[in-house]
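Consortium newsletter contribution from the modelling node. Members have asked for a concrete example of what our holo predictions look like. Here is one, prepared for the adenosine-5'-diphosphate complex that several groups have been discussing at recent meetings.
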Amino acid sequence: MKYYLKKHWKFNFLTILFLLIQTGSQTVVYLLDMQQFQKIIELDFKGFMYYFMISAIVFIIMIAANLVANYFQGKAVRNMNNSLRQDIAAVLINKDHLSFHEQASGEYLSWFTNDVSQIEKKAWGPFYNIVVVLSSTIFSVIALFTLHWSLLVVSLIFSIIMMAAPKIFEKRINNLGEEFANVQAASTDNFKELLKGFDVLRFFSHEHRFFKGINSASDNMEKAGFKLSMWQTISGDSVNLFSLFSQIAINALIAFLSIKGIIIQSAISGGGNLCSTVINGVANLSTLRISFYAVKPYFEKITVHADKDFEDDKTGMLPLHEAITLENVDFQYENKPVIKNMSLNFEVGKKYALVGPSGGGKSTLLKLILGWLPDYKGSIRFDGKDAKEYTTKQLQKQMSYIEQDVFLFNTTIKDNITLGEDFTDAQLKKALHDSALEGDLPNFENGLDTVVGEDGNNLSGGQKQRVALARALIHNRSILLVDEGTSALDKVNADIVEKSLLANPDLTLILVSHHLSDERKGQFDAVYEIS
Ligand code: ADP
Ligand code: MG
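And here is the predicted structure:
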């Protein structure tokens, strides 16, 4: 939390400065009010007008300071929230393949949305409140002291009692806060899942499941929120009740002191305000502190900061010039062995096919080569050097990978291919040709500038795969791993693609496929059976 406050210290400093001006003027207004009242009692009209004018001016200063403080606070909060989201992004980028996929993407969505708004509510808001409360309490303490010491002492005694009150509820509220965050994340993921499965549910006339799912996710979230807010209300009300009681006691004391002539009579009007500022101020400080505890788990998730960990790997990896070698590789997902004692060799520039039954471990093997699954036994070497000596990033810079399930961004075909990088027209044309996408372009209304829709829904399965192929080819890595990347293509297009991949002498190709004809198999340098 401190990190973000410091990082955007300029706006935070200005916010605090103007909040101090605001609370200082507030206290001065209370004192001036007392003087005005005193002048009325003394029937001194001129004196009254004098204090009235000053009070009005200070009041305007207070309002202006409030406005300016709010402006800077808004700026600071905006910058801090942006930094939070950048850092959440950095946490995700720094995760390896497996741990990224341990959590559902809807939960990450909740980090970017719910978590940030919770931090705003429970950390930034209370932080500025503390500045207001603390400064107005201190100003009021000074003002009270100028009136009479006993008022200060009594106010402080009441505030200590009030500070203890919310402690009774502290732990319960903390736990409920944490529970609420988890339920919120789970529900967000449920909403996302139901929206993704919308077509399936509607097609099979399971609309009731859609409604039921939305309702149960919604109610889980509301239930947790309700519980939390009920306990917050109970805790708040107990404080309010006590505050009312102490107010009455203070008023009695002020009345007594002014009747006895110990303090000015007009203290009855403003003194109570000052006392309650002190009492509520001290009590609020302890409640605001509780809020910081509740927000701790949110900050704990953010373990890296974007500006520190974003540098590229400096030590590069040389392009492959001999071979990728697997020796006695074993791999299991949790307790499920998938790859058993596998030894394979992939020489540079040669073409390999991986075949075998579904679930045999072909995709897993590609992910091992990509460096996504670091917990394997045995060795994987690039030109004799252990893959573990390279970072995942370095490994991936040498390889293009086409997944079984192609992902397309909801943008143009061209953007999906280039991912925003600059390529020459010739490079683009070659990628379009080699991926057999060229022939499809006349069918699209806007050619390469056609928007593909969410998840590429405006394209056919085969077209999506060809866009992914073009994406991999244009990024021109020397090793290409294709996971069933030609499986959704018709025979003509599969032929075009496979031929162009096989004909490229610079490319080391590892292609997973389940539909290779014997004739095609013969064109590979080796066909490995994975089962
Ligand atoms: P293939 O590509 O040959 O069809 P995979 O490599 O995708 O096979 O999967 C091999 C086995 O590993 C399957 O039984 C699958 O259920 C399991 N598996 C794949 N990914 C995971 C995962 N992330 N966690 C646990 N098991 C997995
Ligand atoms: Mg697979």
